[in-house]
Amino acid sequence: MKAADFRYVRPKTLEAALSYLAGEADAMPLAGGQSLMPMMNFRLAAPELLVDLNDLSELDYVSASPDGWLEIGAMTRYRTLSAHPHLPCYAPLIAKALPHVAHAAIRNRGTVGGSIALADPAAELPAILLALAGEVVLQGPSGERVVEADDYVLGPYMTAREDGELVTKVRIPLAKDGDRFGFCELTRRHGDYAMAGCFVAASHDFEAVRIALFGVADRPVRSFGAEVALQGHRGDDADLEKAVAALTDVEMMGDVHNTADTKQHLAGVALKRAFLEARG
Amino acid sequence: MSPAPDRHTISLTVNGEAVSEDVPARLNLVDFLRGTLCLTGSHVGCEHGVCGACTIEVDGVSVRSCLMLAVQADGTAVWTIEGLAESGRGADLRAAFLARNALQCGFCTPGMLVSALEYVEAGGTADRSAIREHISGNYCRCTGYQAIVDAVCDVIEGRAP
């Protein structure tokens, strides 16, 4: 229950951090540490070199770009993000979900980039990114590249980020007037990882609908079947039943608390509640 | 032979006093406080950020000290339950915990007090569900939380102008 020995550096610039990561095969970046530290204490992770990103103030910002994106620097802590006065206007779904991300002391340290880099299947932010068609900006020794949310998570805790690359920011389209958002998360205790959760993002006329689930599969997933069932929705509750039935397009994965069948049921409950919130 | 452990010199304030020590990179902050500084009020429960027993204050916010390295505390201001008790900060909260039987074995209490104090000092209201939400990261296996929420409500009402 104590981390294996490692060497530790805390670079002051992104450039220096990237060069440390490039220089050693067993180097790992440390963001807020709210997931990596437990993994190291359990010795599920044992880096030779720990590159602490906590001095990279250049990655700590929340801003709205003129071309319509909310840009969040990777080292922005949950606490900072949730205190941003314009967040409910820029990205209502994030504002709704943040109080459900773990507990206060975790949100005081945990970072947006850390959550995106880990891509926990039961975490809120990677699923929000899917629902909102966001983008992940990665920087490595050979420069910067942008990965769309749909192409970012590749498997359980596996992402498009390559060794030596860092998540530097996430980009999310700014919410437009009339856009609809809904969120539901089912947990055993407030702040615990979700047994099942669902984000719904839709245009006002429901011509565009995106549905992302978390805590039910080996990664955050969209249900294309449910999206199709709800596209063009005009208030007929039968659409919602069809959407719930269509969730079978997601390969549910059971865990120690809930079987895959239970997850299937809970995902339906979460979808219904999230959708009704979005419909208003 | 394995290489010598990586060590770093850190300087910080703990409970208002300047501290400078040479620490191994892998040393958790809570083990530094307990083992090096003999401040054993911060408890080590789960060591993976679930139980909340090691919650302390770093630069004005509550932090799990099992999920932070001692070397990361370089340059910070740390407050533990010992410092809070000596400074008198949150004395009303400790008195309310006693009056309301908000502790039994006491293992969770130092962390619980830090979390509860953060809520009270941030201007939290005597809203029982909001209080429960704020302390949701602190496990207590004795009280059932009811008395803890009672105590926090008492303090908030007592501090109201």
Could you explain the architecture of this structure?
The complex is a heterodimer of chains A (280) and B (161). Chain A is α+β, with helices and mostly antiparallel strands and 280 residues long. Helix content of chain A is 31%, strand content 24%. Chain A has helices spanning 14-22, 36-41, 78-82, 87-90, 92-97, 104-109, 112-118, 124-131, 224-230, 237-245, 260-279, and strands spanning 7-9, 27-30, 49-52, 62-64, 69-73, 135-140, 143-148, 153-155, 158-159, 166-173, 180-186, 196-202, 209-214, 221-222. A 5-stranded antiparallel beta sheet of chain A has the order 4-5-10-6-7, with helices on one face. In chain A, strands 11-12-13-14 form a 4-stranded antiparallel beta sheet, with helices on both faces. A 3-stranded parallel beta sheet of chain A has the order 1-3-2, with helices on one face. In chain A, helix 2 (36-41) links the parallel strand 2 (27-30) and strand 3. In chain A, helix 9 packs antiparallel against helix 10 and helix 10 (237-245) runs antiparallel to helix 11 (260-279). The N and C termini of chain A lie far apart (47 Å). Chain B has a 5-stranded mixed beta sheet. The mean pLDDT of chain B is 96. Chain B has helices spanning 29-36, 81-87, 91-99, 109-121, 128-134, 146-159, and strands spanning 7-14, 17-24, 55-58, 61-64, 77-79. Chain B has 161 residues and is α+β, with helices and mostly antiparallel strands. Chain B has 6 helices and 5 strands. In chain B, helix 3 (91-99) crosses helix 6. In chain B, strand 1 and strand 2 (17-24) form a beta hairpin. Chain A binds chain B through residues 1-8, 10, 33-34, 37-38, 41-42, 50, 52, 54, 79, 99, 102-106, 108-109, 189-191, and chain B through 2, 5-6, 8, 24-26, 28, 31, 47-49, 52, 55, 61-64, 66-69, 71-72, 115, 118-119, 132-134, 136-138.
